[in-house]
Amino acid sequence: MRPPRGVIERYRDLLPVGEKTPIVSLGEGGTPLLLAPRLSERVGARVLLKVEGANPTGSFKDRGMTVAISRALEDGARAVVCASTGNTAASAAAYAARAGLACSVVVPEGGMALGKMAQALVHGAKVLQVRGSFDEALALVRELGERDPVTIVNSVNPDRIAGQMTAAFEVADALGDAPDLHCLPVGNAGNITAAWRGYRLYREAGRAGHLPRLFGFQANGAAPLVTGQPVAQPRTVAGAIRIGRPASWKGAIAAASESGGGIQAVDDGEIMAAYRFLAAEEGVFCEPASAVPVAGLLRLGAPPGSTVVCVLTGHGLKDPDTALSQIGSPVSVEADLDQVRAELGLSGDDD
Ligand code: F0G
What we know:
Blueprint: H1 7-11, E1 33-35, H2 37-43, E2 46-51, H3 61-74, E3 79-83, H4 87-99, E4 102-108, H5 114-122, E5 126-130, H6 134-147, E6 151-152, H7 158-164, H8 166-175, E7 181-185, H9 190-204, E8 213-219, H10 224-227, H11 249-259, E9 262-266, H12 268-282, H13 288-300, E10 307-312, H14 320-327, H15 337-343
Parallel strand pairs: 2-10, 3-4, 3-6, 4-5, 7-8, 7-10, 8-9
Antiparallel strand pairs: 1-2
Helix pairs in contact: 3-4, 3-7, 4-5, 7-9, 8-9, 9-11, 12-13
Ligand F0G binds next to α4, α9 and α13.
């Protein structure tokens, strides 16, 4: 059987791997770029969804993790560590398991969605919940990286950023060029940094003709890049981006300004409206953070006739608690045909 074809195999020439790098892949990348007809109609532009929930662990993090874990293995690492709001933890745990490396994840207590917690634990990671924020967890992990023999696999590791460029490559390959606008949620700001680097590299390599404008979106209660000030206690329904001091702050600002885009904030109500719209009108279930760029697009609009890509960063099943608490619960009936028909509104004249 052929090994799965992951992003390293497909974009090897643009990634920091060599002949001797042992490739640790779960077949990540190659995610759908799906036309969103109803969203396009509402926005007045051609809107496409890059469905990153289709990656092996259900988020875009796998693109960077395949590179980071492969490189860690090549360098003789025995253990990896990360701070996380959940998806990085799930991805690190899976790729470390595949590589035979020990993995520890440091997460804010009570801040990690159920599905992500299950993933990290099932893959055998040591999960430490700290009584503090993601930002405090990351500060602790950075200290560990300095004093102990562990490799950090957060996006402060350049191999993570390198791998995450592959989402931009895939979009340009699918469209034949970069889109006009590329919209994504921003938390620790590694992904927007990677997207901008990826599009620029692709153009330099002659594989895309132009550059997109990058629009990053944060949640109102966690919008340090919009206010210009770190947020000590970030709050939002979008737990994945509940971050007050993004590590790639400068990269995010550079991506937005150099591309002629911007960074803006939306409120939790707009996020949940976009979340429901995507699920109910487009058939795509993403996690709340992933609905953030769609909320932003619905607020800002787009130039008529332009091509817009929204990156849906993680799968909806990551966070079943938010889905159920926000949308409602099922109806219970006896195992009785009349009751079932009555509940379904089918009890008519033929009775
Ligand atoms: N969307 C999802 C679903 C995420 O999990 C994250 C980040 C982002 C967007 C933002 O990406 O940090 O590169 O700006 N999640 C990290 C984690 C922080 O620990 O899983 P970013």
